[in-house]
Amino acid sequence: MSAGQLIDFQPQGDGESMPVEDAVAAVLDQATDAGASDVFLACNEHDLAVSMRHLGIVRPLFKLDKDEGRRWLSHVKVLAGIPLDNRRKPNEGRWLRERADGRKLDLRVNTIPTLYGEDFAIRLLERNTVLQRLEGLGLPHHVMRQVVSMLHSPGGLILVTGPTSSGKTTTLYACLHYLNDGTRKINTIEDPIEYAVEGIRQSQTHAQIEVDFPELLRSVLRQAPDVIMIGEIRDAVTAQTAVRAANSGHLVLATLHAPTASGAIQSMLNLGVHPHFFASSLLGVIAQRLVRTLCLKCRISFDISEAPLTFEDVAPWLEAGLGRQLFTAQGCDECGKSGYAARSGVFEVLSVTPALRKLVNSNAQAREIEQQAIADGMFEFRRAGLLKVAQGTTNTEEILRVVPAEYLGLA
After folding, report:
1. Whether 78 and 148 share a structural domain
2. What is the SS3 assignment for 300-354?
3. Does the N-terminal or the C-terminal CB of the chain have fewer CB atoms within 10 Å?
4. What is the pLDDT of residue 9?
């Protein structure tokens, strides 16, 4: 099913509304089939707007009148276990839904009071989704080898960084899938647990009973793990404990909100980790963004053979015959008229070298760390994005949409 088909859905027929439970189920099923990550219910002055996030872009679906919208919100609250009378405070809920075809959906609901009522964000997760593997993330071959080399380390810290919804959790699970061969004890600390993985011991934080990341991390260390995955480093205590764990022989993988690989190092130092211990434990940083990939059915190509230097900076990593064309999006029935078919990662991977360790130990600025990392062979966002364009995977407009110009050397 394409996203275009989903937008044609209307929760009404022959002038009569569908039963709320059927309409909500239909929207969630169609959104899942279209590959949407979220469904949004937003209260306006006179209506309830329904939209979805598809390939990272919010797409409007339809609007409901105010009364029908209230029925939708109440129905979702009941299913997610959220009190109906609590409208003035943010709420979180969850429900598991089994579809008629046997597929199981794990739906995470977050509500927040707004000017005209409550807004809902519903995260869609399929319980039986096949986890992404490292080779499916979109890493160039030479960058993939860097990541695998880090994962083969007996101990140390690997940070995965980027903004919200940039695929950090997917990358972490791909790394865990690679490591999960039965020879290591792997523990995770997550908020929430997005996918249940056989062979991995997964724990979820519970802020309501003061079971947070630092508390769980201290307990996990007493479980004698080989590998620890921390869903997110949010505070100084978690950062410092993660560094101590990495220094004591554990392989620690964690996400962090930072714009670039060098920025992640600066963020950790700003959280108060000791520069010497951090420098000695850090294996590397994976910074990433998600770009939409062009639909192969309808993309349009332009010959650029008269401008042979366009992709000169990435020529050594291009296969024969590539780099002579530019592609742009058009749109067809196959891709829901969007011009894009899926998403792929754009990565810069910083592998820590002796020179970089000295800079981290001396609390150097992010810019100095970045320059040294590039000198040591880091494939930064500028070249990573250019390579994706040269390969015909995406276009320059999409790279510029998700990677700020300053990180592409354009500002």
Report:
1. no
2. EEEECCCCCCCCHHHHHHCCCCCCCEEEECCCCHHHCCCCEEEEEEEEEEEECCH
3. C
4. 56
The number of residues in the chain equals 411
Residue 58, helix vs strand vs coil? strand
Of 93, 126, 159, the residue at which a domain comes to its end is: 126
**pLDDT, mean of each 10-residue run, the chain (411 residues):** 46 62 92 92 96 94 93 95 89 89 90 96 84 91 96 97 92 96 94 86 83 87 94 92 94 96 95 96 97 95 88 92 90 90 95 97 94 96 96 95 86 55
Whole-angstrom distance, CA of residue 278 vs CA of residue 57: 37
> Rounded to two decimals, what is the model's pTM?
0.89
Return the axis-axis angle of helices 66-80 and 20-33, rounded to nearest 10°. Answer: 70
Q: 139 and 121 in one domain? A: no
Radius of gyration, alpha carbons of the chain: 23
Write out the residue range of the structural domain in which residue 19 sits: 3-126
- DSSP states of 130-169: PPPPGGGTT--HHHHHHHHHHHTSSSEEEEEE-STTSSHH
In a shared domain, residues 115 and 210: no
| Cα–Cα distance, 302 to 12 (Å, whole number) | 44
pLDDT of residue 411: 55
Question: Do 117 and 164 lie in a common domain?
Answer: no
Spatial CA neighbour of 51 closest among 62, 37, 43, 66: 62
Count other C-beta atoms under 10 Å from residue 31's C-beta.
27
